[in-house]
């Protein structure tokens, strides 16, 4: 009897340890993350190659781009107008992802990401929200920020103080 119990336990344990194919859900998440990484890398590359149409095709019609300056909260239309002269010069900006984290919602129609970027400003952080469309993933919202070492934050605050005061005053007047 004990021998039969050991055999049954062995079979159960062996079966549980057997390599199994990843579930379709896991495969889909991996494939979607690869598609998102490919799209974002191509988006950044389009800017470095001044490929204006390709760059803006990656952004949803109602997308928003938030730049490093407090005044830079651009609709796609306004960001295109602002960016056009840079693209017309033959090179807009050259951002290369150093590290990226991608997260996908349970419905697989929305994703968000954060990335550290190698830029002309040094290391920056980009983050955004993506939507799955018939044409693939599109950027709905992108935020670019300059990273500041914690030990330098007091100096940065002092540099920004005057301009921040004006911005705060103007925004409070708006109500």
What's the CATH topology name? Answer: Nuclear Transport Factor 2, Chain: A
Q: Strands of the largest sheet, in order across it? A: 2-1-6-5-4-3
How would you classify the helix and strand content by structural class?
alpha+beta
Assembly category: single chain
CATH uppermost class:
Alpha Beta
| Helix-strand sequence | HHHEEHEEEEH
The tally of helices reads 5
CATH-derived architecture = Roll
Poorly predicted tracts of residues: none
**C-alpha end-to-end distance:** 82 Å
Give the overall shape, derived from the CA principal axes. globular
Could you estimate the helical fraction of the residues in percent? 40-55%
Kindly describe this structure.
This protein is α+β, with helices and mostly antiparallel strands and 175 residues long. The protein has a single domain (26-174), classed as Nuclear Transport Factor 2, Chain: A (Roll), CATH 3.10.450.50. It is 47% helix and 30% strand. The protein has helices at residues 2-17, 24-48, 52-57, 76-88, 153-174; strands spanning 59-66, 73-75, 96-104, 110-119, 122-133, 136-146. The chain has a six-stranded mixed β-sheet with strand order 2-1-6-5-4-3. β4 (110-119) and β5 form a beta hairpin. The termini are far apart.
């Amino acid at each position: 009897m004990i021998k039969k119990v050991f055999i049954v336990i062995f079979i159960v344990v062996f079966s549980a340890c057997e390599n199994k194919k990843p579930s379709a859900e896991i495969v889909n998440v991996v494939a979607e993350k690869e598609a998102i990484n490919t799209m974002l890398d191509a988006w950044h590359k389009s800017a470095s190659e001044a490929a204006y149409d390709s760059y803006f095709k990656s952004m949803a019609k109602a997308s928003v781009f938030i730049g490093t300056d407090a005044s830079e909260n651009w609709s796609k239309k306004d960001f295109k107008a602002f960016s056009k002269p840079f693209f017309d010069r033959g090179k807009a900006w050259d951002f290369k992802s150093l590290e990226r984290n991608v997260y996908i919602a349970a419905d697989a129609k929305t994703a968000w990401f954060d990335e550290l970027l190698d830029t002309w400003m040094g290391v920056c952080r980009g983050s955004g929200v993506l939507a799955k469309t018939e044409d693939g993933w599109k950027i709905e919202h992108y935020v670019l920020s300059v990273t500041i070492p914690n030990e330098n934050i007091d100096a940065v605050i002092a540099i920004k103080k005057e301009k921040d005061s004006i911005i705060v005053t103007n925004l409070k007047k708006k109500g």
